[in-house]
Amino acid sequence: MPEIEHVPMTSSSSSSVTKMDNALFGKYELGKLLGCGAFAKVYHARNISTGQSVAVKVINKNKIAGTNLMSNIKREITIMRRLRHPNIVKLFEVLASKTKIYFVMEFVKGGELFAKVAKGRFNEDLCRKYFQQLISAVGYCHSRGVFHRDLKPENLLVDDNGDLKVSDFGLSAVTDQIHNDGLLHTLCGTPAYVAPEILAKKGYDGAKVDVWSCGVILFVLSAGYLPFNDPNLMMMYKKIYKGEFRCPKWMSSDLKRFLSRLLDTNPEKRITVDEITRHPWFKKDYKAINFYEEQFDIKHDKEERAGSSLNAFDIISFSSGLDLSGLFDESAENGERFVSAESPEKIIEKVEEVVKVDNVVRLKKKKEWGVELEGLNGNFTIGLEVFPLTDNLVVVEVRPTGSSACMYNQVWKNKIRPELISLQQERQVAGN
Questions:
Q1: Which of 242, 360, 390, 412 is the most exposed, fewest CB within 10 Å of its CB?
Q2: What region holds the Protein kinase domain (predicted)?
Q3: 109 is in an annotated binding site
């Protein structure tokens, strides 16, 4: 896939055509840089065929090599694919080259909420409006088993209509990550917005820590400064852990009481999203955000399949196991990863069928969706695991351990993989 050069925006359609060779995969004309971080840059871009403005987040894979950020990126793709809500930034598609990953997302023109509140605190009615939209989005995420874990004004955008959009799900968790104790244990978040139970390192409820962060955000919008702040990070953590904050005198007594419920250091007593929606301060002038989720879903009818409007996820689900090694950055010598629309059960079942008629391999089942293929003479091992990517897609990961290229090719590439591809093709035929 081509490396992409920075291309200035143009309003001329004829000029657009001449730039198509330099455009992102011939689809998006990249424009000005909107922001950048240690591992990614975000550009304004234009869909060449429709003229639609989009935001493209470009992640440099070389910069994240050797870190655990690739797993965060894969999870972010999975999560954003699940979420279709008016107050959540939409992910349109994901593209990849050998060195970069491209998230093509909804362009939110108004920028970060942080930039707006940095100019001065908001009045209580505007705080309430943004908070209502934030809770609508957060409650929706929780109902889909998604916990953001890094809610802050920098991750909240404002569109042309003055409506809030939640973005950046890179640190989000899903219910699959919950431990046997019913809690999450990964330490993450932004220091000033992190809940006290995360600091305690004993596990935490993802929904409850999101509510805490929402409380900090509401305080910031109304006060114009952080409730817990100190130049010394450990002193700030002590304030968070003890819940030591003071509301400014201009806050209404109703808002002060509401914040005390949101910023309760005891997660068991902290107000829940359901209770928030019934609270008098929240309910004032509340307009329920009514939408039909199917309006946001990507259609899968035959007309859509045949058209040019399919995005990356649709193409994967109808292909015969499209190789995404360019996206997941696995070299051939270390095995491979590919995407399939088959269920984990059927994939493992097919592997077992192939191994039964093979006289050189024994199969050992591993926990969840995984197997280990071992040579009868112990000269090679191949590990295979299946990871759910979305409701309809899985990633199959294959890793040889101490095996020769010859045996890897003989067992995996020449026998098992062709059968899995055949299984996918049979699914395609049955669906047509």
A1: 242
A2: 28-282
A3: no
Please tell me the number of Cα atoms within 13 Å of 403 on its side-chain side.
27
Going by the DSSP 8-state scheme, the letter that residue 298 receives in this structure is: P
Q: Which of 91, 118, 113, 119 is nearest to 157 (CA)?
A: 113
Q: Which residues, in sequence order, are bridge partners of residue 35?
A: 42
pLDDT at 367 over 90: no
Say whether 113-293 and 13-107 share the same fold: no
Q: 77 and 59 in contact (C-beta within 8 Å)?
A: no
Who has greater pLDDT, 197 or 424? 197
Instruction: Describe the strand order of the beta sheet including 53-60 as a list of residue ranges.
Output: 28-36, 40-47, 53-60, 100-106, 91-96
Q: What is the pLDDT of residues 163-222, one digit of tens each?
A: 999 988 766 565 555 566 565 656 566 788 888 888 777 788 889 999 999 999 999 999
Q: Is 168 a catalytic residue?
A: no
pLDDT tens column, 64-86:
766 666 777 777 787 777 788 89
Q: Is the pLDDT of residue 245 over 50?
A: yes
Q: pLDDT at position 338, please?
A: 66
Given the residues 150, 168, 205, 329, the one annotated as active site: 150
**CATH class of the region 13-107:** alpha beta
Q: Which two tokens stand for residue 410?
A: 């003989």
Q: Give SS3 for 31.
A: strand
Please name the fold of domain 319-431: TATA-Binding Protein (3.30.310)
Averaged confidence pLDDT in the chain: 75
Residues 61, 329: Cα–Cα separation, whole Å? 8
Contact 350, 420 (CB under 8 A): yes
Q: Where are the domains of the chain?
A: 13-107, 113-293, 319-431
